[in-house]
Amino acid sequence: MDYLKELIKTKDMKLLQRVVSDKDTDNEILKILAKRNDVSNEVRMKIIENKDTDNEILKILAKRNDVSNEVRMKIIENNNTDKEILKILAKRNDVSNEVRMKIIENNNTDKEILKILAEKINNYGRKDNFLFIMESHKLCDKEILEFLTKHKNNDKLLKRCVTNLNIDNKILENLINTASNTVREEIAKQTFVNNDLLKKLAKDKNKNVRLEVAKNKSSNGETLKTLFNDDNEEVRKAVFYNLNTPIKIKKLLYKYNLFDNYTHLAQNPSTPVEILKELYNEYNDSINSNLAQNPSTPVEILEKLYGYSGYHTYLAQNPSTPVEILKELYNKYDDIINSNLAQNPSTPVKILKELAFYKDEGIRINARKKLLNNKTELIKINLEVELKKEINFDDKMNELESFLKELKEENQKDKILKKLFDSLISDQQKLKKSFEEYKKEIIKITKEKFKNENYEDIIYLIDSKLDKIEEELNGIKAKI
Q: For residues 326 and 371, which has the higher predicted lDDT (pLDDT)?
């Protein structure tokens, strides 16, 4: 070890880098070099990388004024760096924002360190990335948010701060009084904002801010009353659609013609039934088209609309359309109607099963998706798809019949028929094995996942197919 102490007195930095990288170099040598004023930053980086470098050596380097920011970042990355070292670096005025970001990202950074950085924010200017990382930190609380929201000209940062659940009403109220339109608009969107603040925002001079209050799910009846006679129609519409708006207000909005048109009322599920009934009496085609699609439209109106073929496609997609009407619509054999039926959750299973084999691929896919809710039927559909895909016995039988006709007078008849029959036997055995495996798989799946489903009919379906194959094969054999 003495020879190393002598060796490190050199001013050859490349040699020192090799020394500190050596696995035999101990802590004592590393500490001596960490304290030296004349070693390069490259040597210091190698000291930090050495696996024997402990917390004490890292602290020595963190306190130095002559190390580069790259060295400081290496210190932060080291597994032996603790909160005390991070605090030393956080307090420094001469570190770069990249170093500060590294401190924020370090798992050992606590609330105290975060506050130190927040308090010093004005000393090193605005850096959006730095501010954003700090705002999104798990330890960011109302005190830190208070520091961050002092950046009045940084709308991006303020918009992020107002979405933070740790922000308190006092900070929000201050921003409502001083921040830009876009920041106030962002506050108005937040569902955790209390109604005292929402009511204040409901009187905002900016239309977009008032609109967000009208849309807010947390706006109560009192807040929404403030907006129901707003000068802007878009705001009034949002009030009408808000589920918290009292029915009385909605009726007033409709009664006094506070909208340019009523199409949007006819299509919205939150429109009160009484208003939907009145809208039907407008005898307007556009309104009726929307009523036919609206799941809140009363059944008696849907039944009346069925009397006009122009509304059939809309009724086919409405989950509130009576089942009897859906059945009648299916019998229209219309691709657009069937496409809507395939996506309608109220379409009977029997129709969906038939649509699962429809000529149009999109309709087939949508029908099978709907059958996901009925697992037994879906297994049946999948089985049918597989059987239809694999079974070619009808083709084989037709092929055989044509052979019998064409080769009736030829000497090669028996030889060719035997070859065909052998082919049928081979296919039959292959299919039988496939069906038996599929049957086992269905039993396994059903027992594991669909315990309450009756799957005997599925097994019967497979067995029937197997019997049919046997029967067909015997028939062919008899012909030969």
A: 326
SS3 label, residue 330: helix
CA distance 72 to 95: 8
State which amino acid sits at residue 176: I
465, 387 Cβ separation under 8 angstroms: yes
Q: Where are the alpha helices (DSSP H) in 68-180?
A: 69-77, 83-91, 97-105, 111-119, 128-135, 142-148, 155-161, 169-178
Burial status of residue 447 (CB atoms within 10 A of its CB: 0-12, 13-18, 19 or more): exposed
Distance between CA atoms of 209 and 235, rounded to whole angstroms?
10
CA pair distance 191, 162, nearest whole angstrom: 11
Residue 166 has pLDDT above 80, yes or no: yes
Residue 378: closest CA among 303, 290, 289, 449: 449
pLDDT tens, position by position, 199-251: 999 999 999 999 999 999 999 999 999 998 899 989 998 998 888 988 888 88
Torsion from C-alpha of 347, 351, 356, 357, nearest 10 degrees = -150
Angle, nearest 10°, between helix axes 41-49 and 69-77? 0
| Proportion of the chain above pLDDT 90, given as a percent | 36
Instruction: Compute the residue count for the chain.
Output: 480
The upper half-sphere exposure of residue 208, i.e. CA atoms within 13 Å in the direction of its Cβ, equals 8
Interhelix angle 97-105/128-135, rounded to 10 degrees, is: 20
Q: Which two tokens stand for residue 303?
A: 């039944």
Locate the domains of the chain by residue range.
180-258, 261-373, 385-479
Tell me which residue has tokens 């948010």.
Answer: 145
CA distance 234 to 217: 16
Reply yes or no on whether the pLDDT at 397 is more than 60: no
Q: Does the pTM of the predicted model rise above 0.85?
A: no
Position of tokens 């009808």?
394
